[in-house]
């Protein structure tokens, strides 16, 4: 297979800016909020940007925020089911 002479040069600053763009963060936040709402009462979400080494990926998490939600998630895999898995 012949190789073309095109070479890509990655720009880590551009990728970092893209990952923290308002549209990207808003979409991740809305997805996390939807999963927390589907999980039910006692589940919360948060988001933040990771360390810049060099990626700085934006991440959102959904977690049980009460003892009852912890027990519910352990017994029913609630968080897994909100993501479409776990049957």
Quick tags:
single chain; two-stranded antiparallel sheet; 16% strand; 87 residues; alpha+beta; 4 helices
What is the topology?
Blueprint: H1 12-19, H2 22-39, E1 43-49, E2 58-64, H3 67-76, H4 78-82
Antiparallel strand pairs: 1-2
Describe the structure.
The chain is α+β, with helices and mostly antiparallel strands and 87 residues long. The protein is built from four helices and two strands. The longest helix has 18 residues, at 22-39. The termini are far apart.
In short:
The protein is an alpha+beta fold.
How far apart the termini lie comes to: 44 Å
> Uncertain regions: pLDDT < 50 for 5+ in a row?
none
Which class of secondary structure composition applies to the elements?
Answer: alpha+beta
**Outline type:** elongated
Order of helices and strands: HHEEHH
Share in β-strands: 15-25%
Tally the helices: what do you get?
4
Helix content: 40-55%
Main beta sheet: strand number and arrangement?
2 strands, antiparallel
């Amino acid at each position: 297979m012949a190789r073309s002479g095109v070479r890509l040069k990655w720009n880590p600053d551009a990728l970092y800016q893209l990952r923290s763009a308002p549209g990207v963060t808003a979409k991740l936040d809305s997805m996390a909020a939807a999963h927390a709402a589907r999980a039910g009462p006692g589940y919360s979400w948060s988001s933040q940007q990771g360390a810049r080494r060099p990626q700085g990926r934006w991440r959102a998490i959904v977690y049980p925020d009460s003892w009852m939600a912890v027990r519910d998630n352990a017994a029913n895999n609630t968080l897994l089911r909100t993501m479409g898995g776990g049957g």
